[in-house]
Amino acid sequence: MFDLVQHRKPGKLEAFIMILVIFFILGYSMIMIPNMTPHISVLIAIIFLLLYGTIQKVKFSLLQDSMIQSVSTSMGAIFLFFFIGILVSVLMMSGAIPTLMFLGLNVISTKVFYLSSFLITAIIGMSIGSSLTTVATLGVALMGMSNAFELNPAITAGAIVSGAFFGDKMSPLSDTTGIAASIVGVDLFDHIKNMMYTTIPAFIISAIAFTLLSPWDKVGDISSVNEFREAILSTGLVNNLSLLTFVLLVVLSIFKVPAILTIIFTSVAGLLISLINNHYSLQEISGFLFAGFSKADLPQNIASLLNRGGINSMFFTLTIVILALSLGGLLFGLGIIPTLLESMAHLLISPSRATICVVLTALGVNYIVGEQYLSILLAGKTFKPIYDKLGLHSKNLSRTLEDAGTVVNPLVPWGVCGVFLTSVLGVSTLAYLPFSFFCYLCVILTIISGFTGISISKK
After folding, report:
1. Residue scoring higher pLDDT (334 or 367)
2. Would you say residue 1 has pLDDT above 60?
3. Residue boundaries of the structural domains of the chain
4. In whole numbers, what is the pLDDT of the chain averaged over residues?
5. Of 134, 435, 372, which Cα lies nearest the Cα of 427?
6. Greater model confidence, 77 or 45
7. First and final CA of the chain: distance in angstroms?
8. HEC readout, 290-342
């Protein structure tokens, strides 16, 4: 994308006004129109830029080339999402994810309830790669227990949100994790390993905080959790052999096997375990790989966790990536972003300043537009040339995008995640925000990393 031809060179004021107009289009439609999907907002912005380019007498064929070339730079990401969809289905049908859930539910304790809520949602979030699904299922059950024990609902919600978004951030099955890595051209597992420098300290500090806040003198009934465990066990998917798929996934990533090959090898291992344990037909397997794993007669709360995956489940992510890349291609091809970067070039001369600018951009998009995908995509494409110029490895950028983009959206009251979490948990965003330690600790730690140079990798 960064060798795209710049078809015109607008003035600084014009470029600044145009970027404000784009943010207004995205922000207004996302905030003011209920249930507006980001796809429509981005498409409206693309149409506006196409009209703007035509008025500025840029040939439509050149504008189209800018979009096509931009998308072509991230074709690796598009292929990766196909394989991630397949992997999720395989991990479900082999029993790997249900087994990890079953084992993870053993950590629930009423004496350290907030810590338990944080840990279990982190485990489940990492195993399924979806923070919102984790919150909407297990999170709701935990909120019910919290109310029954007469505990602070805001702290419980903060623990649930912190754990779920830790799991989402560190899971190779997560769409935001895949986008952050692919948008700047970093291997998925290199990206995940590099995130540990800020994520693990944030996780430990959060765990300590929830331990200190937990009601040590409370003894309550955890029968609802036991019912949840028994429901998972009754699916017939729980088996220890399936955990070998996670072992293989970790081993291959440690040995730096490319992400797509790692996913392929893990998927093949999972399919073999599925055939041994569950004897699926080839017709069933092909259906699962495309449409996602599905098992009939499951309780609603279990079905929403287990019936998922497949290539079909990746279409939402794939289409928003393609549209956002096309938008980025127009912003570069029309010279809007290059002009703004040139105006800031004298400021962006160190890793600390670059980090701050990425953080502010990701935060700004989250709070103006309320969308985490766009905060990652726009900030990633905008600042990749700056990191290249400073000789910094792109994995520094992808980590900062997640630290200031992915985990910030649940803290935005009008953001997609913030609105969803409030409606599901019954706790306002501003109420659980102070206790969502993990989310804002990631932002603080990534800024500290940028200023101190700790864990900042050179090319």
Report:
1. 334
2. no
3. 76-314
4. 85
5. 435
6. 45
7. 19
8. HHCCCCCCCCHHHHHHHCCCCHHHHHHHHHHHHHHHHHHHHHHHCCHHHHHHH
